[in-house]
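User: Sequence for DUF2252 domain-containing protein below. Tokens please.
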Amino acid sequence: MNLWQGEQAFTSRPNKIVSIDGAAQRKVVGRKSLCDWKPEARGHDALATILAQNTIRDQRLLPLRHGRMAATPWTYYRGAAAVMAADLASSPNTGITVQLCGDAHVLNFGLWKTPERNLAFDLRDFDETLPGPFEWDVKRFLASLVILARSNGVEKHAKAAVAAGFAGYRDWIARYSTWPEIDIWYDSVSTEQLLDYATDDDDHKLDKLIEKRAEKRSSRGAFRKLTDVVDGVQRITEDPPYRTHALRDHVGELESIITQYQESVPDHISSLWSRFDLVDAVQQVVGVGSVGMRVFLTLSEERRTGDPMFLQVKQAAPSVYEQFLGESPYANHGSRVIHGQRMIQSATDMFVGWTSIGDDTDQRMDFYVRQFRDGKVIPKGEMIAPRLSQFATACGHVLARAHARSGDVQAIHDYLGSSDKAADAFGRFAFAYADQNDRDHAQLAKAVEDGAVDAVEGWPGQ
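Assistant: Structure tokens for DUF2252 domain-containing protein:
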């Protein structure tokens, strides 16, 4: 079922923008109605939706996925993008289209090094990216602030954090609506800007902490931490079930993956990559919602100096939004992820690409490829909880820039307007959906406790 109610902002060519009257879309979905959440109208069972995702996953890892999601309402939310996609689709949408991040929760914003080797703050997860209504990203972001605050014992600050996050979004949408398009595309949020948002006078050590962590999170840092010499050869160390040499009997498939990946990147990157030799690969467990998806970590060494390079090869399935918004125009879901990432991010890792295994459409598995770590500094809930409002403001800025790049920023600005109607409605939705998330988490936790869903505890050391 396709739920578009206004003129779709993307035509036959992916990401071609058509102007839309944002103020007129208030007649399609009034701003006050953005707060509506009707559990009786959601049209699906949350637990069934979670379990339905298991068919394409590595069955051996499913108990670990269930255990991680059942741990807390926050970990459940991180893994339940499919649940929220169905819930968002159960209500009318504005028809004002952007390239959705698709999983814009507060910990999916972070730092990494741009190709120019500068640290930038931006969205960092694009597994579910797809063109869709701008408010769906905003709702997932704001609800995540409430859930994170509750899970870290700072619920009293949740209302202020939601207000700050939305203000950061709306204020920057208003600014971007006055900017030339090219200036929006060149804009980025630097480490210095993040610190301006997220620190007080007594937080002066945070910038040094960020720089120190970024320096460690590189291929060379990973090489020192994650490899050892085995029989005279450098190998990635095992840490079952989180890292295992599951590919030793599939060397041919792995070489095919790497060859296809090289064909997806620009010629100058392919030329650079041709100077590296693949020396090892492991299967890896990452995240919460991604557990069970095939994720491989490859180690290559530069032929002349032996300099290491780690790439992460991650399985890409259809976006959880496709059954509601229509299929992606990209034949390979790894390509969908990377094209969406480039549309949204201010600067993208130059090594990103895509590949697949198998020729049969029903049996084929798609993958996207990116550098492993490369200066990535991923926030932790307990670290940002004391400064959640400030961090939320920075995230709102970044989300606004992503939507301004990929959609009609004037339409979003005109729809939101200058009154408090949208702010109040988004805020009420955030708390109502956080309550729903608590109920859905309790449903999964009970199923685990009753033995109806297999689960094991476990979280690897980072």
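The chain has 18 helices and 13 strands.
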